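[recover] target loaded
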């Protein structure tokens, strides 16, 4: 399908033409849509030689037009047909003027993208030309010929393209959307092989997503009715829709939050690794999905303002699953009603809620339930008689979750329909009857021990971990197979997982066996201490491969949180030293600061001065990286506390502390203090008995930070000399990480000091590939900033904007707010 994009000069022409007509880019200003639609009607009539009363205007109405305000298209057609005022075309144009219908592809979304002065997004050729004509502009002078995709001989008919989607809210995109090819989302993975039933409700929900007037939707029903599955299916269909060809709602971000640990999609199990039980949890889920995990403030009002700021330029679908189990439900509802109009909110709940437009789910109708039973029976190779279909339907009331587990039991135990009928007694909690019978069969068996032991894991676990914590290897395989057949566990490649609802039930079961739980938890803690130990480093800020640790992170995080809850100081201290480097590289700032604060308090209670100093230093470094003004003010106090704790200790420790203090001072722009500390560091280095190459390592650090001071105070020549000296020394001892950092600084020296642009480009080509290969996110982002600066000096504005936007988005995801503001000022200038 041909798409056109506005050129940079074209943006200026559009702005001038809009000013002359007094048009705006606001949803309430529909004049551009009306003019473009009328033009396409006239163009279509001329191209196809249709008269004003040609019956094909009504016959092809759905192909030519779309209706607004969630109206019934058949009623619109009937209204046109019965009216006696003027010709068919005149009646159509009257409805266009009233804002009831527009031509296909003519929408506020396409108009806002065409007229945007912030970025240049592609739109369909026919809409592009229609808007140009409406503004009295020559489209050939507006189009960007380098980036537009054309199709030779494309027709100029109203029906030659599919409709442009109408979304719930504003089409203004987030600043970062031009640099992204896909929406932000955190939707759980779908595992079902087919969508069975609920087609009517799915269609209704998708239509509500497109209705701008209905921002709040509630999906209600008892447990197991498929509320979550329905909402997720609709969300995925929007996520996978093509923005240029689909009539579904298109979102810039889809955020899924749930207060439960269960998720069932069709016939397959998937899990949510965490729960959002409070308003703060929902805040974190939103910011984590938008790749801004470090924007959490301490004050609730500040948090709300931060969320609103992030969402006001993003067309967002926010899903709040299992509302009734939230701990602060009223606060959450108040928050949802305060969201900007760009956000569409969907909740699921077992209770009836006066929350927007509701869709109520009960059991599946008989025909849909039979299809679901047949589908799962085929997948499980279960041969059912006709009367068994009816019995399963009756005993489960058509609830999808009950059907899935009923078929699972039949596939494993071959339970007769009569026996099954006596067991599947509906209770108030669907999970109870889904699991009670299966677990009761297992009690006293090794499979039961394995089941409750698996409940300790927050995420999938390796077989080795399972055998270390629950059962010996010889017994584990058969027990896993038994649980797998019962659908109480699932296998994903070489790891084993549980349905979150199963995990909740198994955790409750675990509490009934306190002796086993105590033993299993000790093995659980010791196992994760063992597998995390190889990641402990003396210099945790240096590059390291954390690939194997990454897949265990959520399990390990659960262990640490449990130890904190149990006040297990020594394991937490050990875990922290194992994973502090990982939290630094991967940006887990929230967990990092929370654990540091707990350790600091616990160390103070135990008068563990060494840990107190370590925690204070780690906290100061973390706050320095985030560079928020109020946090930088706290760094000084932290440094004074660390200095006091280390007073009178060995000179090597004093040297390390002095250099750390210099780094903190740089980010506070206290350069005189920085120079004093670096000078003291040089003197200490002369006094400290330290072997090579560790002495060179410290010399490099001092030269590196002194060069940064010269750079930030404008003496680029002196900065270059020191950086080159440090680079030579780093290469001599093969310290590749700091070599890459210095190369980036030398690029910036050339760019800021009016130096050689060719030399800057040469240095970029050396350093950036290494940073990319080592997955150093901060280094990569700074290289992107330098690349943007180079393109700006060369006058390559399109490339400048590309790299500047990428750098800004990456700085945002890292929580480096000073750099975000800097990149924003570059873009605005």
């Amino acid at each position: 399908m041909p798409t056109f994009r506005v050129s940079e000069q074209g943006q200026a022409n559009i702005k001038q033409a809009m000013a002359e007509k007094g048009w705006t880019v606001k949803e309430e200003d529909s004049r551009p849509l009306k003019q473009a639609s009328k033009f396409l009607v006239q163009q279509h009539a001329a191209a196809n030689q249709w008269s004003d009363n040609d019956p094909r205007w009504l016959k092809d109405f759905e192909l030519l037009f779309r209706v607004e305000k969630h109206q019934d298209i058949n009623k619109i057609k009937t209204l046109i047909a019965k009216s006696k005022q003027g010709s068919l075309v005149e009646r159509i144009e009257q409805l266009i003027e009233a804002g009831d219908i527009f031509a296909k592809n003519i929408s506020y979304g396409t108009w806002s993208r065409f007229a945007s002065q912030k970025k240049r997004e592609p739109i369909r050729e026919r809409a592009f030309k229609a808007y140009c004509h409406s503004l009295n502009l020559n489209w050939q002078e507006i189009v960007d010929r380098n980036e537009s995709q054309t199709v030779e001989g494309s027709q100029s008919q109203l029906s030659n393209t599919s409709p442009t989607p109408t979304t719930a809210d504003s089409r203004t995109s987030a600043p970062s959307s031009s640099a992204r090819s896909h929406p932000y989302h955190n939707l759980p993975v779908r595992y079902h092989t087919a969508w069975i039933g609920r087609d009517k409700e799915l269609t209704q929900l998708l239509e509500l997503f497109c209705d701008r007037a209905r921002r709040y939707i509630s999906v209600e029903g008892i447990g197991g009715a498929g509320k979550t599955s329905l909402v997720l299916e609709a969300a995925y269909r929007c996520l996978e829709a093509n923005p240029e060809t689909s009539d579904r709602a298109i979102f810039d971000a889809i955020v899924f939050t749930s207060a439960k640990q269960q998720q069932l999609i069709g016939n397959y199990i998937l899990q949510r690794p965490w729960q959002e039980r409070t308003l703060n949890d929902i805040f974190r889920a939103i910011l984590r999905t938008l790749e801004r995990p470090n924007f959490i403030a301490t004050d609730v009002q500040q948090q709300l303002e931060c969320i609103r700021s992030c969402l006001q330029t993003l067309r967002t679908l926010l899903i709040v699953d299992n509302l009734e189990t939230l701990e602060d439900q009223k606060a959450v509802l108040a928050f949802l009603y305060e969201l900007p109009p760009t956000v569409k909110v969907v909740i699921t709940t077992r209770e009836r809620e006066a929350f927007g437009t509701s869709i109520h789910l009960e059991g599946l109708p008989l025909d849909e339930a039979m299809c679901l039973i047949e589908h799962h029976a085929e997948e499980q190779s279960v041969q059912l008689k006709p009367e068994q279909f009816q019995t399963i339907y009756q005993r489960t009331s058509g609830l999808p979750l009950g059907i899935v587990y009923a078929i699972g039991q039949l596939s494993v135990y071959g339970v007769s329909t009569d026996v099954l009928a006596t067991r599947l007694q509906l209770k108030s909690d669907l999970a109870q009857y889904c699991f009670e019978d299966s677990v009761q069969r297992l009690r006293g068996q090794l499979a039961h021990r394995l089941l409750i032991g698996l409940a300790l894991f927050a995420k999938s676990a390796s077989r080795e971990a399972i055998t270390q914590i629950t059962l010996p290897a010889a017994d584990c395989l058969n027990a896993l197979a038994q649980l797998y057949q019962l659908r109480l566990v699932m296998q994903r490649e070489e790891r084993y997982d549980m349905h979150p609802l199963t995990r909740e039930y198994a955790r409750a079961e675990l509490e009934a066996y306190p002796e086993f739980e105590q033993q299993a938890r000790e093995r659980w803690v010791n196992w994760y201490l063992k597998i995390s130990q190889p990641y402990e480093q003396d210099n945790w800020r240096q590059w390291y491969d954390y690939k194997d640790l990454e897949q265990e992170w959520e399990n390990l995080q659960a262990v640490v949180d449990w130890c904190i809850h149990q006040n297990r100081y020594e394991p937490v201290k050990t875990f922290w030293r194992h994973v502090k480097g990982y939290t630094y590289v991967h940006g887990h700032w929230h967990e990092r600061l929370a654990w540091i604060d707990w350790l600091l308090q616990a160390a103070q209670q135990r008068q563990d001065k060494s840990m107190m100093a370590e925690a204070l230093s780690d906290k100061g470094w973390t706050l320095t990286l985030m560079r928020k003004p109020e946090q930088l003010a706290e760094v000084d106090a932290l440094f004074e506390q660390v200095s006091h704790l280390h007073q009178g200790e060995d000179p090597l420790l004093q040297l390390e502390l002095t250099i750390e203090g210099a780094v903190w001072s740089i980010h506070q722009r206290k350069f005189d203090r920085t120079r004093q500390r670096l000078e003291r560091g040089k003197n200490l280095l002369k006094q400290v008995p330290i072997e090579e190459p560790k002495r060179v390592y410290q010399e490099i650090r001092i030269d590196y930070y002194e060069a940064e001071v010269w750079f930030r105070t404008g003496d680029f020549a002196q900065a270059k000399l020191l950086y080159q000296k440090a680079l030579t020394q780093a290469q001599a001892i093969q310290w590749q990480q700091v070599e890459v950092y210095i190369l980036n600084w030398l690029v910036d020296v050339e760019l800021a000091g009016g130096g050689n642009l060719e030399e800057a480009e040469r240095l970029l080509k050396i350093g950036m590939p290494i940073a990319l290969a080592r997955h150093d996110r901060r280094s990569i982002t700074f290289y992107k900033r330098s690349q943007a600066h180079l393109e700006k000096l060369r006058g390559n504005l399109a490339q400048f904007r590309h790299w500047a936007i990428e750098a800004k988005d990456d700085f945002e995801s890292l929580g480096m707010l000073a750099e975000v503001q800097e990149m924003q000022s570059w873009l605005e200038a």
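[recover] notes: DSSP finds 39 helices and 15 strands in the chain.
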